[in-house]
Each structure stands twice: as structure tokens, then as C-alpha cells.
Amino acid sequence: MGTYAEEIRRPPAGARAGAAAVTREAIQEYLKALSARGRSTATVKMYTAKLRAFYDYLPPDKLVFPETLSAWRDILLKHGYSPGTVNTHLSAANGLLEHMGRRDLQLLERMETEPDAQPELTRTEYLRLLQTAKALERERTYLMVKAFALTGVRVGELALVTAEAVETGRLLLTFSGERRYVPIPGCLRRELSDYMARQGIRSGPVFVSRNGHVLRRTQVTSEIQALAHDARVEASKCTPRCLRKLCLVTQTEIEHSVRLLAEQSYERLLDTEQLAVGWDRA
What we know:
The chain is mainly alpha-helical. The chain has eleven helices and four strands. The chain has two domains: 4-8 and 16-105, DNA polymerase, domain 1; 123-255, Orthogonal Bundle (hpI Integrase, Chain A), CATH 1.10.443. It has helices at residues 4-7, 24-36, 41-56, 68-78, 83-99, 123-135, 139-151, 163-168, 186-199, 217-231, 240-277, and strands at residues 20-21, 63-64, 170-175, 178-183. Belongs to the 'phage' integrase family.
């Protein structure tokens, strides 16, 4: 892929007044700000890679103009990047420019992407995973599967399942700059507490390696996939993402059922009142 200067026509000299210079220091400050706001290590690493690519494709003076991001988007598409990947590149660059106080240089228009055909794990298959984990005495994997399926955490947020969070009974999650608390169901909280007591975990992340290091994404997925093989559940359904989706779908279905029951109860109440005082009964 050619350099930015080779592939993009530079704006006329008179337009340089509205430009902003991107520096390595500005990028580092922005990445530190992301960490301070609670973004996961994986997210910060992803933004680091995208911003490094953005910096490398800027001209030698590293100036960003109003049309820079749209031109960069076209270059990425030209070199075969998918719309979804292009969106993540632009999201990183937009975030940096906002941090620099230059929203006027952002490109906020997102490209349309085709929805992923994500396999759906059923609750029967989920229970089979848990039963198999119990039979094979894979307690850590059992608890990870439950953590994803009962709290809806993302794989990058698994490190936020800490001894402190278990003690308080809720997780503090941050996504897209928004902070929210997610309750840890009582059954999972009790099992995590028992597990921590036996493992000697008094603080910090619950799911760690034998050396005490936080599990990598690949380790987490690999453990769950191995369990899926033994449980004879389709591997493509047994990922942290699919377990999280199971949590969200289950909650949505329950909320819909509760809402329907409430509507039916309300209708019955109104019918009873109508029989008692309705005008047509006068």
C-alpha cells in the first residue's frame, strides 16, 4: 500500500490553517485517557494498532484536514478492508480528534455492514456444557461459561470479574464511555466465592492462570471450545460472544413475558371495573 502522500492529493496551501497536526504524544495521551476511562486492555491495544496505521498514512507533516478521514476511508476500501474494519479504523481516528478538541475534522458517517450470521446457543446446549464441565471437574471453565451466560460480560471484560466485584455482588462495566453496574446472580456469586476461597484468591481478577496472570482471549475461547467438543455441542456456538448473546436473548424473552402478563393483568382489572361502574351497566 502506498503512503498517504502518494495516494491523496494535498489541499491547497491556503487550507492549511484549518488543519491539525497529529503527534505521537497526542496519541499516547489519548490511549492513556481510554485506559483511565475503564476501557479494556484489548480495546486499547486495538485502538493503538488503528491509530498507528492512521499516523503512518498521514503525510510527513502529519496534518489532518477536513477531508482527510474520507480520503483515508477510500484508501482502506481500495486495499480490500471490509466496511466493518474500516469503521473501526475511523472510530479510533474520530476518538483521537475529539480528544484533541477537533471534532470539526471527524468523519462520523459510518459505513453499512452486513449483519454477521452468528450461531445461537440454546439453553439446553448451555446446560449440557455445564453438566460436562462438572463431570470432568473443570471448575474454572464451568464458572467462565456461567459468567458469560448470566452476566452478559464481553470477553474483554472478564478481568473485571474480581474478588471485590464478587464481594459487592455487582460488576462495574464501561462501554462507549458509559458506566453501568451489572448484578452478579446469587447462584454464581456463591460458586465464585467458594472457588476463590479454595484457590486463595482474595483480590483482583478471579479467572487467572496458574502463574496468576489474567487469561488471554485465546485462552478463554480455547477452554470453552474444548469443553464444547467434550459436550458434543457445535463449537461455533460455544464462544464468549454466543454465551453473551444467550444472556441477552433470555433476558429479553423474560422481559417480554413479564410485560405481557402485566398487560393481561391490567386488562382484567379494567374489565372488572367496567362490570362494576361501566356506563353501559348503568
